[in-house]
Specification:
alpha+beta, 6-stranded mixed beta sheet, 311 residues, disordered N terminus, two-stranded antiparallel sheet, 26% strand
């Protein structure tokens, strides 16, 4: 089953370890074996991009321009984070600030050329509809890519919502009527929690949009894609045994570390979900946080023995 996570205004594909049926390292290994068989059987597949999800919509009455929308009930998101408001939404030093400015520049430069496609999508006069995109600028998350690029995953539309409390309690987000779903814990129907849903669009129109954006993006060192299909190379045998046999060292303290094959670590591992880990330097972080992964990978930061992580 495809599982999606809300990030920004849209849904992104889960990492394998996010899936509700992946609870141990053995589950993770089984997942990759199933993925191997899926590709071996020549099923349609797509690359999961390790980037940052961003929603781009069109705003303005006479002077149309692109804006970012993070999907919150803040006024700046509802009305749109235009180029002149990026610094208001993302504080100095925020990693998204420079990339968002570049992407808005690319999209705005091409807006006259892409107007026919944006109208076909129904975005031109309806800011509740947006392009669900993901961008990579260098090593945005964990994976390093050769090029800077952004991918347009599809066309989404926000659900309507009104803030019920807090400083933005009067803010209203227009959009689709929010459907009701049954909550087994409350034993009653409740509004769906998703911020948006994907809506139908013509793939040919998306391909035209991407093609028109490409020369503008190249001027700023970016590539543009829609879906990135994946297939196995001919005569390639997918085999994880070499990687799983590689030694992996975890530094527990300045004078203690454990080294064993990656596969052995996985056989003993449990997925920590949303648990917090305390590092030896006293700082706390999410158990699946990128920086924690890098610290363990490089054996730079000793990890204390604690109930949150068992070795």
């Amino acid at each position: 089953m495809l599982n999606l996570i809300m990030e920004g205004g849209a849904l992104r594909m889960d990492h394998p370890y996010d899936l509700p049926n992946i609870n141990t390292g053995v589950d993770l290994l089984n997942f990759f074996e199933k993925a191997k068989k899926f590709i071996d059987d020549k099923n349609d597949s797509a690359v999961k991009i390790d980037g940052v999800n961003v929603s781009f919509k069109v705003v303005g009455d006479e002077d149309k321009q692109f804006a970012v929308d993070r999907g919150s009930l803040k006024e700046i998101d509802i009305s749109g984070i235009t180029m002149d408001r990026v610094d208001q939404r993302f504080p100095e030093g925020h990693g998204m600030r420079p990339a968002i400015k570049t992407l808005l520049t690319i999209l705005n430069s091409a807006i006259n050329d892409t107007e026919p496609e944006l109208k076909k999508f129904g975005m031109w006069d309806d800011p509740s509809k947006f392009l669900n995109t993901e961008y990579v600028a260098g090593t945005t998350n964990v994976t390093a890519y050769d090029d800077n690029f952004f991918a347009i995953h599809g066309l989404n539309q926000f659900y309507e919502k009104t803030a019920k409390s807090g400083p933005s309690k009067d803010n209203y987000r227009p959009g689709l009527e929010r459907p009701m779903v049954f909550d087994p814990k409350k034993k009653q129907m409740v509004p769906i929690s998703n911020k948006s849903r994907e809506i139908p669009y013509d793939p040919a129109v998306m391909n035209r949009l991407v093609k028109k954006l490409q020369p503008y993006a190249k001027e700023y060192g970016f590539e543009v894609y829609s879906s990135v299909p994946a297939s196995k190379k001919e005569d390639l045998n997918i085999d994880f045994s070499d990687v799983l046999s590689q030694p992996f060292t975890v530094k527990l303290s300045d004078d203690r570390e454990i080294t064993k094959p990656l596969g052995d670590w996985l056989k003993e591992a449990n997925i920590p979900r949303f648990r917090t880990v305390k590092l030896a330097n006293g700082k706390k972080t999410h158990a699946l946080h990128r920086q924690l992964y890098l610290n363990i990978l490089g054996a730079e930061t000793p990890l204390p023995e604690c109930s949150a992580m068992k070795f």
